[in-house]
Amino acid sequence: MNVLLKLENCTIRFGGLTAVSGLDFDIREGELAGLIGPNGAGKTTVFNLITGVYPPTEGSIFFDGKKLNGLKPSKITQRGIARTFQNIRLYDSLCVFDNVRAAFNLRLRHGLIHSLTRGPKFRKEEEEVADQVMDLLKLFNLDHAHDKICKSLSYGDQRRLEIVRALATQPKLLLLDEPAAGMSPNEKEELMRLIHFVQKEFKLAVLLVEHDMKVVMGICQHICVIDYGVKIAEGSPEEIKAHPKVIEAYLGVAPPQPEESSRA
Amino acid sequence: MKDGRIFLGLALLAAFALNALGSSFNAYYYDVCVSIGINIILAVGLNLLIGHTGQFSLGHAGFMAVGAYTSAMLTNHFLPSFLRLTGSTDSTFFSHCFFFAVLMIGGLGAGLIGLLVGIPSLRLRGDYLAIVTLGFGEIIRVLILNTDALGASRGLSVKVSSTDLFWSFGLAAVTVYVVASLVNSTYGRGFLAVRDNEIAAEAMGINSTKYKVIAFVVASFFAGIAGGLYAHHKQFLTPEGFNFFKSIDVVVMVILGGMGSTAGVILAAIILTLLPEFLRYLSHLNGLPHWAQPLLENRLILYSLILIVIMLVRPQGLFGELRWFSKLGRRKTQ
Amino acid sequence: MDLTLFLQQLINGISLGSIYALIALGYTMVYGVLRFINFAHGDIYMLGAFFGFALAPLLAQLFPAGAGIYGAVAILLTAMALCAGMGIIIEKLAYRPLRDRPRLTVLITAIGVSLFIQNMTQYFVGAEPKGFPELIPIQAIDGLGKLTVLTSQATIIGVTLILLFLLRFIVMKTKLGMAMRALSLNPTACSLMGVNNGRVISFTFALGSALAAAAGILVAFDSPSIDPMMGNTPGIKAFVAAVLGGIGNIPGAALGGLILGITETMVVGYINPNLRDAIAFAILIVILLCRPSGLLGKVEREKV
Predict the structure, then answer these.
(1) How far apart are CA B224 and CA B65, in angstroms?
(2) Residue of A nearest to B327 (CA)
(3) pLDDT per residue over A227-248, tens digit each?
(4) Taking the domains of chain B in order of start, what are their residue ranges?
(5) Domain residue ranges of chain C, discontinuous segments joined by +
(6) Fewest C-beta in 10 Å: which of A253, B203, B325, C237?
(7) pLDDT digit string (tens) for C231-257?
């Protein structure tokens, strides 16, 4: 599989604080990757780097072979990277339908003038968009709520809507920022199935930032662990589970030596 | 939305018919009707910027001034030669063509200034944007005040009064059509997305700066058109007529109508055009206690009370949506 | 270059700048604790002048022979106290009920309050300018050679310095002052630490309004014509000064006021008197586009 996203020696400094330092990280096409680390490790900062909210102080980010450094977030989304947010950022005054509809903007063929002249091409495209929106909503069981205000949806549904909205931008890579936050165990099971489904159905690569180890170990094929902005481990779930540095970062103690624990 | 274009056609016909009747109106009522049309253009245009895109601008009067003075100068300097060139007299097809051209140029000029002002200013948020637009509005006013060719503080007379009910209501209908059509399209949802959650909008591929600038330019364009209409109606312009209080006039219309609601804003524009006239009528009634007259004549006393009461009791205005409004920059206080 | 003229302009500028500084301090303190631009602040300055105007005949009645400097000080302090009260009342009535509402709502309310105060004052006293009595005889101070420094200017600068000293003392050395500073950093933590946020906010408004009132009286000492709209232009200019120094930053407001006053005087004196009002707006635009956090302010980032 080709490398889709490549972070090369990425560093970002905010004044005196180095949030991320020298990060090297790849994601391949169609891969389901995870980014984990203790609180404050810099995971959301990495997301913000990839999506262009901040430019890296040093290093480069490549997507599909092209450099992303310094591009505006909207440009990066046009290139094919979409994301959800740690705190839900839906369009509160718009109904569910319009939340997804607005995400089709970047792929529109018509623009400002056509909205005014409203010729047949415009109307045709509007119909196409409306169909695509309903199709997406149906796929995620949200079509019945299409004219509801997002605030009236359950928390789990709102999170799902955010994912649907991100998918409407037709990305190649989907970034999910703590999608399981605030969910019950059942909802988390649902979410894991959903992410698998999304990955297969839309042929996407997915990068997940998540605290819940069950979710991460359950679905990720490739995990990167960071602590204090530095990568401390990378590999498959089994490798990461046993990695001493990872255990130390999360628990703060080195695992006991085998000879001591055999003395029962 | 086929209905939109049909509506526009019907509205233009209605404006034409109204204008034919208009000659039988009392001059005072005629004046008020023309003002209603002008205010609708101002308010609906500003609503695109403030209500639909969430950018609070306090310098709208400046763009109105640009349109007013530009069109006035063009008429004063070029109308006679134009009429001579086409060999026609006053109220004919040609002078109307000229008027339309002059209005458009005034609007484009205002739109251009809007572009120049908007691009640097729209990087700022909330309070700062309000203050900087106020600043630009004042700078425009001061520049006009210090330009002799524009009449400075003495004022500028406009040679012809080309504005009639057809132009006023016709262009108002066009404004409503443009803003409503723009916003009610997939493209136009972008404005609302920028208003509701700019960061999310950017992440969904919407270039928020582009949308903000477009809203700013469109609003300024229509303010310029309104200015041109105003100039050819009152036939006399002074910089003082385009000061901060004029900007506030339009802002109150947008707020009263409910930011983001085109229908509400139209209604508010009508109400707030009629209200000062009504107050003036009341203030001249017989048997009024002497303390009441200046209270009614100074419309700003009532306006400011309206503002305060609306904000305390119903900040979403007549028809606005409370939801988005309540998300805008929530204050984290005690 | 004529040194005397330059020094003359400098003194004028410092005097003007002191007024801007006093008003700017009110803007910056309120912004610091509430993150809110009090549009009505310039009108408190105007009310200060008018309170003095209303009190002067009373003073003349009590002391027919003239009360001299004691009378002037008494009027200054009384006007400051009255305006401090006004500030507290306005905050309680118009701003506090909107505590949890979006900033835009309060901004619009502030505009409404400002217009209301101006126009109600106009309703009561009429729109024509009134003459403020000359409580301190305006004359040039002797012994400065070719420099003309008026007693009123010296008063402005002197009183401003005293007030700035007092303000610094209050903000740095008293518990209320410390509470103000804490509130501007983290309101939630403040209330959790037992601070009565409401009381501190009222105090902030009172302090800012008192300073604005002082500015109003001092200006009235200097140029005796006052009118209900006099708060508009100095109000917006003082706001620019606060932004210039870094809004929320107290020394910044004083610095910004001074810089604005001197710049304005210099431009009017050496370049073009017509540009007087445009200077402030030009500075505002440059600052907001180049360094919105101001000279002494810090940059605030939004968390994504």
Answers:
(1) 7
(2) A92
(3) 888 998 899 988 888 888 888 7
(4) 2-243
(5) 26-231
(6) A253
(7) 988 998 999 999 999 988 899 999 999
